[in-house]
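Record now logged for everyone:
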Amino acid sequence: MGTIDGLPPLRDVIRDHDLVARKALGQNFLLDLNLTAKIARAAGDLSAHDVLEVGPGPGGLTRGLLAEGARRVLAVEKDARCLPALTEIAAAYPGRLAVINGDALAVDVTAHLTPPIRIVANLPYNVGTELLIRWLTPAVWPPFWQSLTLMFQREVAERIVAKPRTDHYGRLALLAQWRAEARIVMTLPPEAFTPAPKVHSAVVHLTALPAPRYPADGAILQRITAMAFNQRRKMLRSSLKGMGADIEARLVAAGIPPTARAEEIGLEAFCALARSYD
């Protein structure tokens, strides 16, 4: 793809701009432009969408998104060292790339995007899960985005798609699957990145549902699941005692055995328990 957009290979970009990945910023650069194009394609048809990218680094995925036809890309990059490389990409795609130098946890991106919107990112490891939870738990649903196509450590990706009674099942699976369809679409070995992380990575694609699968108050559901899985080896009548003295009765009314543990209970039952507090 380096010849398609007329820009140099990413290794040259990193060398020319002295972009040594910084562990403190959770940076692991994906250099294979064939892979970045594949990730962009996994997000679906981008020609009619604005795309939000967090942590573009030297711009490998950014180039993939633009080359695959994204209407417009908004890249939020905290590391000012990467801005010259991103400026070069913007020049190669006039009017289609905007860059914000800032912290994605603090920037209001909605003011800079025009719907419909997709989010596609190789998320920095140190903020990936927090950003995902924010995108899954807005005050109003449906959210500002239609889909999320996100790179995580493979263990985190498996937690997002996990089912009850499996090792990775927990609060993240419940929050994701309550409001979205989630599936792993790609896995990548450590050597695909520079520097190579110690773990495999995976890309998860989440499509926002028009409404949650089951009715429940989001804040209550988050509180219940946080308490339940913070003490996942305890029986729910013990781990959820902070929800009130009548917790056993509420569990029974929701169809949940009070002696069950969090990892045994599915999304529908947790939502039923949350509704009892409405």
User: Anything to note?
Assistant: Residues 10-208 form a domain with the Rossmann fold fold (CATH 3.40.50.150).
